[in-house]
Design goal:
The complex is a heterotrimer of chains A (318), B (292) and C (430). By secondary structure, chain A is an all-alpha fold. Chain A is built from 14 helices and two strands; from the N terminus they run H-H-E-E-H-H-H-H-H-H-H-H-H-H-H-H. Chain A has a single domain, classed as MetI-like (MetI-like fold). In chain A, helix 10 crosses helix 11. Chain C has two domains: 182 residues, Periplasmic binding protein-like II (D-Maltodextrin-Binding Protein, domain 2), CATH 3.40.190; 192 residues, Periplasmic binding protein-like II (D-Maltodextrin-Binding Protein, domain 2, 3-Layer(aba) Sandwich), CATH 3.40.190. Chain C has 17 helices and ten strands. In chain C, helix 6 packs across helix 7 and helix 16 packs antiparallel against helix 17. Chain C is globular, with a radius of gyration of 24 Å. The chains are: A mainly alpha (318), B mainly alpha (292), C alpha+beta (430). The interface between A and B is large, with 98 and 95 residues.
Chain lengths: 318, 292, 430
Amino acid sequence: MANTALTRPARQVTARPAARSRSRRRGQGAAYVFLSPWIVGATVLTVGPMLASLYLSFTDYDLFDSPRWVGLDNYVRMFTEDDRYWHAVTATLEYVVVSVPLKLGLALAVAMLLNRGRRGTGLYRSAFYAPSLLGASVSVALVWRAMYGDGGVAGRVLGVFGIDVGSMVDQPRYALLTVIALAVWQFGAPMVIFLAGLKQVPKELYEAAALDGAGPVRRFVAVTLPMLSPVLLFNLVLETIHAFQSFTSAFIISSGRGGPSDSTLLYTLYLYQRGFTDFRMGYASAMAWVLLVVVGLITVLLFRGANRWVFYLGEGRR
Amino acid sequence: MSVQATVRPAAGVRRLRSVRSVLWHVAVTVVVLVLLYPVIWLVSTSFKPADEVLSRLALLPEHATGDNYRQVFGGVAGYSIWQYLGNSLAVSAGAVAGNVLSCSLAAYAFGRLHFRGRGPLFGFMISTIMLPQHVVLIPQYIIFHKLGLVNSFWPLILPKFLATDAFFVFLMVQFVRGLPRELDETATVDGCGPFRTFWYVILPLLRPAVITTSIFTFIWTWNDFFTQLIYLNDPSKFTLPLALQIFVDQSSQSAYGPMFAMSVLALVPIGLFFLAFQRFLVEGVSTSGLKG
Amino acid sequence: MTSRTARRGARILAGVVSVALAGVLSGCGSSSGSGGTQTVRFVWWGNQDRADATTKAVALFEKKNPGIRVQTEFSGYAAYVQKLTTQVAGGAAPDLIQLDRPTFGEYQHRHVLADLSRYTGSTLRVDKIPANLLAGGKADGKQYAVPAGQTTQMLVYDKDLFDKAGVRVPENGWTWEQFAKDMQKVGAATGVAGTTDFGWAVDWFDSWLHGRGKQLYTADGKLGFTAADLEQFWNTTAALRTKKGVSAPEATTKMDGSTQNSALVLKQAASEMNYDSNLTSYLSSYKGTLKTAPLPGDDAAHSGMAALPPVYFGVAQHSAHKDAAVKLLDFLVNDPEAGAVLGATRGVPANSEVRAQVCGAATGDDKAVCDYEQRVQQRMGPADTWQWPSGSSAVKTDFQQVYDDVIFGRTSVSAGAERVVENAQQALEQ
């Protein structure tokens, strides 16, 4: 990003106060112009519908007749009377808690592996990223179902190691694992981001640590992790949010049912069933808002906790 | 790099290093193959005849055939695959144009310009990333219906021109913040207002972020089945993922062979796209100021 | 550098935008409406074969009715329901709609469908449609949808496996008791479960109930059975499960009525209950010889089978082109040319004359369907006691989900039955 502008002598911008405030006002007006597409989009396509769905969450709305106000009924029923709601919550929590660390761990490990800079890294990087490209598609989910189903390759491979699982997608014990596997398979996206982050770690730090007698593990803990922490936070937050909203893989693998026995009934899948199959859009809206609030809280918690372990190069330890 | 006389290591060490290198390559290749097995399986199944598709789960077909591909190229639901490809391209290209334009505009405002409420608005924008799709689906549909835009590409592209993809605004804001302010000041001193500063100074420097945005937008839009399903009714307007759906219907006989063939064909454009731009991807990510 | 890059960037951007615009402009602007032509939107779900046949039939209709243009839309079933719901909710309902029993109940209850009574007998001919079939599209005595075909329940079985076990289909069909014994025989002799565990689907429970003079739902849309009934039904299957009379849980949980998830096709059971509109699908996917038999029933008066519409056609209440849509409906159901083109893609034709014509000319798998229907003609009861009211799709999903819990041992049969009844009552109240 070489820039001729930077080599010019830095001139003092001694604008008079009046001129400065005039330019500030012009800046403010300009800001709104720049923001106008976003403002229109946010109001009409985001805030408006959000408020509409908030309203709907307090109604009984079957999509055809007008919504009928029921107050907190949906929320009450959700938390106290609906067994399947808790199945969905459990399944989703299990999914998030297992898939996110696995995915990030794998992404980091492979990124470090590829960071050696040997020949062909570019090709390998593309290969590792490819699953992320394909992952959300219907075809891959169908392939997954076949692979982990009867006579699929997964069962046969595990059989070689003496583990007899049968058809994993058809048993409550294992079905969610196959959905998790599909999520983890797509570790290429966070991996690419980690790779970029690793490349920005100044080599001098490693050399200094080595000179101080630090072994590979110590170097990882003392140099790599802290330097990667902003990227780690970024990946952690995004992957967690995406995990909570995961839909397509569970939908296809369980043929839309969330089975067997609700073991793969992820939250958004249950939401979809309630809203579109059972025509209970008010209830579905309530579920959506609960999800929004929970995800929001978790994100805030993640950012708050980040103060303790995230380290920004230009700012020193907080 | 420390300054040292570059001494060539002894022959034994060199051999050890190349052996280790070979082992490394082998290990990585094995991992890659295991990882890509599902894709390989998908491609191989697309060459299997109808009776083998469901029943034979081995990797290679017993009687390889091009029938599935022939069926796909013969047209799906009355339209050729090129039509669906063209539709997908149009939608994805439109989305890219929209996102690049609107998100960079918004990012410049959030990242550089001062205005009242910048903080809270920024926080609000970030929080929209967390919005589940189903929350806003029906109201959005009603809006587009009232505008008479259903059954066209507009509902798929217009939101992109309105910076609704907060993820990319965020990405670009991070990047803009990483640009030295002297550039802006120099431009101002040279007589540029905010608009010219944006167009001539900032935007060109945003190139890596723009490329990242373009690539991700293209790929995500290409694969975005749900929105396309809701807003495209006429089969002539179907995109590739929608056309794929036609092959798999649980209430009547499904045709998995052609579906897999079409899946493979649907993945080829984004595969190529990715291969062509993948180095920009890492560049884009690495210089988008993620370190803070 | 900056200005050159800026210009290049602008040109690239312009290029992308023009591609997008070209695409968008071609993608929008539907509208016909030239002169006096009306455009009718017709939607259905189904696979490629059904789509091809229907599009051809529609083309025929357009030729015979130059003032009417038909815009067709179709997709797979899951996508179809999602999209139709969104369209109707958003006020963009199509004119002619394909429905099945669950969706018919839901939409009719919500006044989405137009009352066709004033068309029947004139523009909409229904005289050649058997009364017991036509009854399925009625509610409160009014006709809200017309059956697009006819199907009935069947048991499809692998002839070789049954022969190996020495099991023969009795002259007048099985009783439930005999059926249970025979399925155990098959399981014991061949190692393959006698039949697919039929406790998963509310459909077979409905048949079993009808065999006892009961039904799933009463005429006023309430539950027609008790927890005790369901308990008895599920205990029957439970007893069979232990003796390989019915399929294992892993095989049963996949079932959804389609052939790709069918335990029979995957060779995990020797027979299966389904509707005969799926017979052609079975015949083309199965490796072996398949034969058909009626469902078990305890006596002729209570056969547990009926002439059911696999799909209906209905017209939207808010359609602006009702007359044209009804014309299209009438054409698809009654016109002999349409019948020839549509064949058995929606079950055997509803119109008895068209059916005779289609079945007369049928070959191969289509002929098997026609033959079966002919054979079990006498056993088919009227369709009106088989209607599914609003809330029934929730009951159907819940039924299968609870059964999943039962077969995997997560809940007992009695607890499960209670839960189903409780949830069903709630669902039906909505």
